[in-house]
Write a structure and sequence with these properties.
The protein has a single domain, classed as Outer membrane efflux proteins (OEP) (Up-down Bundle), CATH 1.20.1600. Helix 4 packs antiparallel against helix 7. The chain is built from 9 helices and 4 strands; from the N terminus they run H-H-H-E-E-H-H-H-H-E-E-H-H. It comes from Methylopila turkensis. This is RND transporter. Belongs to the outer membrane factor (OMF) (TC 1.B.17) family.
């Protein structure tokens, strides 16, 4: 009967052990306990209109589009998040090394010479290759790889979270800058109006139909309007520097034109069913990936209690003469197998408890992220609807205040109105105009919040944000049992 070579026996044993170890992947996804509602509380039954990849173009500002595209390329926070993806991918490769044999080649030469009469030099040459492999019988090494893979997916969703936050910050800050510019224009207009009233009162004082108190009160209104200008100018500059930071540039390198909020469009967006939001929100997907990673950490911590089986093999050539090094008579090899069973390692229970605790924390974080997504969408929906309603009402208030102001100006020139009425009408108009800008800003920022609450758009590659869907059917759930 022909004998089976030792190397063949080793390979057969390795294959059988790997086949048996496949039974270690018995985890299933736990019940997360998320009660996803069937509809939104503030939903008006509109058809779902998900954000486009470049949803910010819907506002109709080419400058805003340019700023956001620059931020996507040059923002340091986004670059740092991409660097964390590289680290996570490297960790997958590091952990994956445990699933393949470790191979090593060595070469050695030596020369020995004894002292005394008749001494001669004796040389030796050796070249060898060695391999070692830990049989992943209990699935510990594969669990560490799956944990690293889930962490790499989490890093990608984390980058999407950062990028979405940067984009929405650029949009909100740009709108705030435009609102401040509009308020500044209104403030200058109010100064001119107050000056016109002041001149009219001065003319009445000159002919004796007004008194010094009337002039002093109007002077106060004029000075108050002038005093608002430096604060608004500071707000404009502060918003410019904030955008510069988001673009990753010094403020001196950023020049923003801005404009009027009233010139922008309001893009259409409507949510689908609440459950669909969970698949679009990168923060929810990140939390899910973190949950998968820590579940595999639990699997690895459990497997650490079980024996570890290591296989080693070495073979090569050894000779005292280089010319005969690779002869058949110079061949050598060795095979070995070892089993290590932890008997007293006080750190193992602690490691398991630590991994279990982290899993449960991430499970709660996942549930909270899901609930938070529902809350964010509901808040954004009501804000979009109510700020639009408030803007319509405030526009009517400004129109009425403007009509009253025009009437009181005419009556003042005719001397048919007292200064107290003039002062009250002025303040009402100035306040109404400023409030209209604030409401309009709130409406645009509410739209941005809705885009953000829905998870933004799609990645430039055309794939869903964060890349391919996360497959966790066999990796999530152990700690929940």
């Amino acid at each position: 009967m022909r004998s089976i070579p030792p190397v063949t026996k080793l390979a057969a044993a390795l294959g059988a052990t790997l086949a048996l170890s496949g039974c270690a992947d018995g985890w299933s996804r736990p019940a997360l306990g998320i009660d996803a509602p069937a509809r939104w509380k503030d939903d008006r039954g509109a058809r779902a209109v998900w954000p486009a990849a470049d949803w910010w173009r819907g506002f109709g500002s080419s400058e805003l589009t340019s700023l956001i595209q620059t931020a996507e390329r040059e923002n340091q926070d986004i670059d740092a998040a991409k660097a964390r993806i590289e680290q996570a991918d490297a960790q997958v490769r590091i952990n994956g090394a445990s699933l393949i044999p470790f191979l090593q080649a060595t070469g050695d030469t030596q020369l020995q010479k004894s002292s005394g009469p008749g001494a001669r030099a004796v040389g030796g040459f050796q070249t060898a290759a060695s391999a070692s492999y830990e049989l992943d019988f209990w699935g510990r090494n594969r669990a560490t790889v799956r944990s690293a893979q889930a962490s790499a997916v989490s890093a990608r969703f984390a980058e999407e979270v950062v990028a979405l936050g940067v984009v929405t910050s650029v949009a909100n800050t740009y709108f705030a800058l435009m609102a401040a510019q509009e308020r500044l224009a209104i403030a200058h207009s109010n100064v001119r109006s107050a000056q016109t009233i002041f001149d009219a009162i001065q003319a009445r004082l000159d002919v004796g139909t007004a008194n010094a108190l009337d002039r002093a009160q109007q002077r106060s209104v004029l000075d108050q309007q002038k005093a608002t200008i430096p604060e608004i100018e500071q707000e404009i500059r502060t918003n410019e520097t904030a955008i510069a930071l988001l673009l990753g540039r010094p403020p001196v390198r950023v020049d923003i034109k801005g404009g009027r909020l009233a010139s922008l469009r309001t893009p259409k967006v409507a949510p689908g069913i609440p459950a669909a939001v969970l698949a679009r929100r990168p923060d929810v997907r990140e939390a899910e990936a973190n949950l998968a990673a820590t579940d595999n950490d639990v699997t690895s911590a459990r497997a650490a209690f079980l024996p570890a089986i290591n296989l080693t093999a070495q073979g090569g050539f050894e000779s005292v003469a280089l010319r005969s090094l690779f002869g058949s008579q110079s061949t050598f090899y060795s095979l070995g197998a070892g089993l290590t069973q932890p008997l007293l390692d006080a750190s193992l229970p602690g490691n398991l408890d630590l991994a279990t605790g982290r899993y449960r924390e991430n499970l709660i974080a996942y549930r909270r992220a899901a609930v938070q997504s529902f809350v964010d969408v509901e808040n954004a929906l009501i804000a979009v609807r109510k700020t639009a309603e408030q803007e319509r009402l405030q526009q009517a208030a400004v129109k009425s205040a403007r009509e009253a102001y025009d009437i009181v100006q005419a009556q003042l020139r005719e001397g048919a109105v007292d200064v107290t009425t003039v002062l009250a009408v002025q303040q009402t108009l100035f306040s109404a105009q400023d409030q209209l800008v604030a409401v309009r800003l709130a409406r645009f920022q509410a739209s941005v919040s809705l885009f953000e609450a829905l998870g933004g758009g799609w990645a430039a590659s055309g794939k869903p944000a964060g890349g391919d869907p996360l497959v966790l059917a066999k990796s999530v759930g152990g700690a929940a049992k």
